[in-house]
Amino acid sequence: MKKSVYIQSVGSVSAQKTFDNSSFLEDIITYNDTTIRVIDPNYKEYIPPAAARRMAKGIKMSTVSAKNALTEASIEESEIDAIIVGTGLGCIGDSEKFVKDIIDNDEQFLTPTRFIQSSHNTVAGQIALGMGCKGHNFTYVHSSISLESSLLDAKLQLEEDEAQTILVGAVDELVDHHVNTHHLIGHIKEEPTETSNVLKSQTKGAIFSEGAHFFVLSNKKNEGSYAELLGIKTFNTLQIEAVETEIIHFLNDNSLDPEDIDLLILGNNGDVEFDTYYQTLDEGTFASHPKAYFKHLSGEYDTANGFGFWLANKILKGSLVPSAVLRGKHEIPSPKSILIYNQYRGENHSLLLLKKC
């Protein structure tokens, strides 16, 4: 018999004040720009300064997020059986710096540090080295479903009892060359937009950002568990008219009906060309369902759904839906089941289903 999978703790570094687990979106930060960066914690409290100076930003964000998740789970580092990380771009900042050094130094006198830290699996490797974890260590680079791939790997291992406790993370950092490229191809909004109004902007492109989100998953439930992870499904491509049908099939596969879902969390990012995928859910079966959004708080990046997953877990554990994410005037006193639907530019659709413990 397959075991159930539970989220035991969360950790997040984002454009909001999320690295402190004692608060939950109580002080919303609003930006007016085309790109937004994370609110940096005091890295010295988590990482020795000498080590931090050599770390890429993605590694530092992930270290803080992972340590917060491990601390909240109240487990020893030796109890972690595996570390799985999803990332769309990895440590792209060091990659860019290394290529720049090659050009500037005419391919001579290069130090290997930036090359070593530029690979996508650097984050998972650095965390494992710091913890002394010699177990399964894997990085998924699956664009905007990188987090979902990591969660699926962990879920399968836990269900089959191949592992008991797994640290799962998602991270992406924002760097200049990446931003400039996406400005040129129209994936980032042309004009600065206030984040609180971005979902109503009616313009092309999104507000790009960065973040790191880590979670401790286990096949054993305890008093502090956030939620049970019931199901995960991804689609490379999906026609707009098929979204509702596929969601219903997904729920049925997990022995649920649409009326069993208390809250839909959607990945709208304010791109007028692609938010239409979510707008279809305002009609038909899900028209009256309460809906919440998060990318006006987190910004858009390959693993932005990590913020959505963090949000869903916090809502289920605290039995509270912050007004900053809720659309309309629905009252949801104590949601018990949440469905997260996300996609990016019409591709890499994902469904995550969570139930309150």
Automatic annotation (TrEMBL):
Q: Which InterPro entries does this one have?
A: Beta-ketoacyl_synthase (IPR000794), Ketoacyl_synth_N (IPR014030), Thiolase-like (IPR016039)
Q: Which UniProt keywords apply?
A: Transferase
The record's annotation in Gene3D superfamilies points to: 3.40.47.10
Q: Which residues form the Beta-ketoacyl synthase-like N-terminal domain?
A: 47-220
Q: Which is an annotated Pfam family here?
A: ketoacyl-synt
Q: Which SUPFAM superfamilies match?
A: Thiolase-like
According to UniProt, the name of this protein is: Beta-ketoacyl synthase N-terminal-like domain-containing protein
Please name the source species.
Euzebyella saccharophila
